[in-house]
Structure formats: structure tokens, C-alpha cells
UniProtKB/TrEMBL annotation:
Record key words, sorted: Membrane, Transmembrane, Transmembrane helix
Spans through the membrane: 30-53, 60-82, 88-107, 114-132, 144-161, 173-191, 203-221, 228-250, 256-274
Taxonomic classification: Bacteria, Bacillati, Actinomycetota, Actinomycetes, Kineosporiales
Family: Belongs to the EamA transporter family.
Record SUPFAM superfamilies: Multidrug resistance efflux transporter EmrE
Keyword Magnesium among UniProt keywords: no
Official protein name in the record: DMT family transporter
Length: 277
């Protein structure tokens, strides 16, 4: 069940990142992330209110704030890098952020089976290859640096979400969204850049925000049913989804290395699942 939930979260993350990347090409990345985060906050806050989750243990607060700060920083860097038109550089580097929770999970005492470890390596390699890494030519220091920062931010956010979910998954995500929206509000006011969005952006940003918070919730639930080192990698296969959407929606051709990557990611997930049996 943990692997399935993590896999579903990667599908939702990949879809929302694809839509967010498209929108950031015509609107400021800061506005796109801030608007989508606000939509996500409204949705998860309603869930917390309806379920009464806010009455529980407050041990999630610190982890939620940390997740919000790291995740927000990662999203801004990711969208800004995508807007530069270097998806072949951005996605594979950002995908390597999954290594962060793997290392932390193993250091914390997790011991996945040999078959699962093999599957993790194959799946992560597949995610990188599916992104169509640019193996030739200069990509520029800016998109590479932004992608690396995005990966670290995403990786740390995965760890912090898992820690907060030990107390309450819904409230951890609520606190995470409150933090991210507050950060964007402060930045927007200080830079006097509150504008940038139009009424026509509401629906697209709502879809991106709901997809992102939904993916976070599925991932949080997955971490409470399986090892962090496994769920983090499976949940980080979103580049595969992003590139497949680009193929079928934008009609972009998949290079041979991307086809191999998609296949490797699927094989990796299968090995992880078998290793959990």
C-alpha cells in the first residue's frame, strides 16, 4: 500500500509540475507558485476543519514550518529553472533530491531489502534518464544551480513531511501551506510585486495547487505505512510523468534515452514492490 500511495503521489506531483511549468512561461514564477500555494492552503484547511484534525497533538508545527520553507524554496527554483527552457537540465538534477531522504532514512536505521535497494537505484536512474538529460553542450550555471537548489529543497521537504506526519498528516500539510503562503505574501509586499496574475489564471492555479497538496497528502500517508527511504524515491518519480505529459499533450518526441528511462523507472518500482513482499 505504501508503494502504491507514493506512486500515486508522484503522478499528481508530475502533473501539477507540468501545468505549473507551462503557466510560469507566461506569468512570473513567484506569482504562479504563490497563487497555487494559496489554492492548496484553502483546500487542505477545509479538510482540517471538516475532519477536526486541528484538535490533535501540536507536535507537527515545527516540522510543518520547516517543510513549508524548504518546499517553497524548491518550487520557486524549479519553476524559475523550467521557465528558462532547460527542462533537460532541470528535471534530472532536481530528481536527484530524492537522495536526501534516502540517506537520512538509512542513517536513521532503516534497512530496506537488497531487492528494494536495487529497485530504488534503478527507479531513480530511470527518473533522471526519462527527463532527457542534456549530455552535450553548455546549459549555463543559472539553471543548473537553480535545479540543484530545487532538488535539495524538495528532498528536505520530503523528510520534514514524514516527521510531521507522525503526529498528523493533514495538519502538517496545513501548517506547511500556511508557511509557504506567508512567505510569498511577505516577499510580494517587500518587492511590491503583488500583481502578475489575471482572473484567467485562477482555474489553472487551482488545479496546480490541488494537485500539489493532494500529492503531499498521499506521500505523507505513504510514509506512515512504509520506509522513508523507499516512499521518498517512489514519490519522486514525477519527472517520468512530466515528460510523458509533454509527449502526449505537447507532442514532444521522446529521445531514446528517455524511453529507456521510463522503462527503467517502471522496472525499478516493480522491484521495490517485490522487495516489500
Amino acid at each position: 500500500m505504501a508503494v502504491l500511495l507514493a506512486l500515486l503521489s508522484s503522478v499528481m506531483w508530475g502533473s501539477s509540475d507540468f501545468l505549473g511549468g507551462l503557466r510560469s512561461r507566461i506569468r512570473p514564477a513567484m506569482a504562479v507558485v504563490g497563487g497555487s500555494q494559496l489554492c492548496g492552503l484553502i483546500a487542505i484547511a477545509l479538510v482540517a476543519l471538516v475532519t477536526g484534525a486541528w484538535h490533535g497533538d501540536a507536535g507537527w508545527v515545527g516540522w510543518a514550518v520547516a517543510a513549508g520553507l524548504s518546499g517553497t524554496g524548491g518550487l520557486v527554483c524549479f519553476y524559475a529553472a523550467l521557465a528558462a527552457g532547460t527542462m533537460g537540465v532541470v528535471s534530472p538534477i532536481a530528481a536527484l533530491g530524492a537522495v536526501v531522504p534516502v540517506i537520512i532514512g538509512i542513517v536513521s536505521g532503516e534497512r530496506p531489502s537488497a531487492l528494494s535497494v536495487t529497485g530504488l537505484v534503478v527507479a531513480l536512474l530511470g527518473a533522471v534518464l526519462a527527463s532527457g538529460p542534456e549530455l552535450r553542450g553548455g546549459a549555463g550555471a543559472r539553471p543548473v544551480g537553480l535545479a540543484a537548489l530545487a532538488g535539495v529543497g524538495f528532498g528536505l521537504a520530503l523528510v520534514f513531511i514524514e516527521r510531521g506526519a507522525r503526529f498528523d498528516s493533514v495538519m502538517t500539510l496545513t501548517g506547511m501551506r500556511v508557511t509557504s503562503v506567508a512567505v510569498f505574501a511577505v516577499v510580494a509586499i517587500s518587492l511590491r510585486s503583488i500583481g502578475g496574475l489575471r482572473p484567467s489564471d485562477v482555474v489553472p492555479l487551482a488545479v496546480v495547487g490541488l494537485g500539489d497538496v493532494g500529492a503531499n497528502l498521499l506521500y505523507a500517508l505513504a510514509t506512515q505505512r512504509g520506509l522513508l527511504s523507499i516512499t521518498a524515491v517512489v514519490g519522486s518519480l514525477y519527472p517520468v510523468v512530466t515528460v510523458l505529459l509533454a509527449r502526449f499533450v505537447l507532442h514532444e518526441r521522446l529521445a531514446r534515452i528517455q524511453q529507456i528511462g521510463v522503462g527503467a523507472a517502471l522496472v525499478g518500482v516493480a522491484l521495490v514492490a517485490l522487495g516489500r513482499v
